[in-house]
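Re: the request from the purification team.
They wanted to know what the chain is likely to look like in 3D before they choose a buffer screen. I agreed to run a prediction and write the result into the notebook, where they can find it.
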Amino acid sequence: MKKLFAMIMVIAMAMTAVAVAEEDNEFMGLSYVELMGKLGKVQRALWASDGWTSVDIQAGVYKIGEDIPAGRWVISPAKYDDFYTINYGTKLTRTGMDIDTDSIIGWWNISSDYSDSLLHSLDITLEDGCYIQLGHMSTFKPYSGKPNPQFHFD
């Protein structure tokens, strides 16, 4: 009798878990385009929330105002031993894979190795409609209004 009761309980719990999983996943059955639209809305809501302090962004090309909010950011390598370039400009090449060299506003070499003389983080104001190209995964933090600790102001 105990075995029968235990089996009935296991089956009932399994059926409940399946029903809850199907009910909780409101994204099942949506197309790729619909899912990407929802992802964009969720990302914008997360950027606007007060609950985060930084976010790691994969290497790639991003449009400011769509993929990354416009504003002042501090960008640094997400992993130790990274050395890479960040490009910032107004237009993409025909392929859309790179920033057009004629439109580059600035480029910087970034390094996480504090023993070298390269830039270790970038304080930059990103403008709507521009593009940023990250050579490696980067950590974005909202600018806090504090001076860079390596400079001493009297």
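For the purification team: The longest strand covers residues 104-111.
Please add any questions underneath this entry.
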